[in-house]
Design brief:
The structure is a single chain. This protein is an alpha/beta fold. It contains 10 helices and 10 strands. The chain folds into 2 domains: about 170 residues, Rossmann fold; about 70 residues, no CATH class. About 35% of the residues lie in helices and about 25% in strands. β9 and β10 form a beta hairpin. The relative contact order is 0.16.
């Protein structure tokens, strides 16, 4: 069953009197329980695509979004604000790449997760227990104690787990993870990806992974969409895209992955003029 259908999505920004196209007519689908990776370098349009799915971009005239984003048959781009608020966070949740800037430093992490729970589940009476359960589920030890911790008291890896707990506390059907491991060291990156994989299987939750790092995708995503200059230039199953690469840009991205045993003086430079 398709949860999300994006059709001919276009995003344009007005900058200094000029109109800049960030996303140019892309289409894709996300099924229940599926993991889809959107891969591309900075500026390719992948994060703008993610934000447009729940209309988190600036309003017109600063930003124009056209096309269709169907969530369970309803076009998110035309929904009234009240209906949209019921989808944001509760049905489609986000985990961003830098948790320290996503969390308010003057409130405890438990308080901030509780805010999200109260917003989407006002009937919930045992909010603290609900938050502690979410913290435990993402592998935070001494969850009762961490509930009262401030963001600066936690490590980067723990903060990212807090952000995942905040998203999961509202039991979303789709989790959009925008570069969730960029600010973390390699061992913590693996822990976070393993955690997301387990949570997807446990809750039958779809994941849209936004990343510039093809090496993260191989053992994580079911399908891959490669974005270049606002367009999807290649898509397919992860195995097919990585083993039978067709587009020169995808080949260039794969060639940039450092591999043990391969000695190179420098990584391959992407020749944009030839694309």
């Amino acid at each position: 069953m398709q949860l999300l259908e994006v059709m001919d999505l276009c995003v344009r920004f007005s900058m200094r009197g000029e109109v800049v196209s960030a996303v140019s007519g892309i289409s894709f689908e996300v099924a229940a329980g599926e993991t889809v990776a959107i891969v591309g370098e900075s500026g390719s349009g992948k994060s703008v695509t993610a934000l447009s799915l729940t209309r988190l971009l600036p309003e017109r005239p600063a930003c124009e979004v056209d096309g269709h984003v169907y969530y369970r048959g309803k076009d998110v781009l035309t929904l009234p604000q009240k209906s949209l608020q019921a989808i944001r966070g509760k049905e489609i949740a986000y985990v961003f790449q830098e948790p320290s800037t996503s969390l308010n430093p003057v409130f405890t992490v438990g308080y901030q997760i509780a805010e999200a729970v109260k917003l989407h589940f006002p009937e919930e009476r045992e909010v603290r227990q609900c938050v502690v359960k979410a913290l435990k589920e993402v592998g935070i030890h001494e969850a009762e104690k961490r509930y009262d911790a401030y963001p600066h008291e936690l490590s980067g890896g723990m903060l990212q787990r807090v952000m995942i707990a905040m998203a999961l506390a509202c039991r979303p059907k789709i989790l959009i993870a925008d570069e969730p491991t960029t600010a973390l060291d390699v061992t913590i990156q693996k822990q976070i990806l393993d955690l997301l994989r387990r949570l997807r299987e446990r809750h039958n939750m779809a994941i849209v992974l936004i990343t510039h790092n093809f090496s993260l995708v191989q053992n994580f995503a079911d399908r891959v969409l490669v974005m270049f200059r606002g367009k999807i230039v290649e898509e397919g199953s992860t195995q097919a895209v990585m083993e039978h690469t067709k587009h020169p840009y995808t080949k260039a991205l794969l060639a940039c992955i450092p591999r043990l045993g391969q000695k190179k003086h420098r990584l391959k430079t992407i020749d944009y003029e030839s694309l």
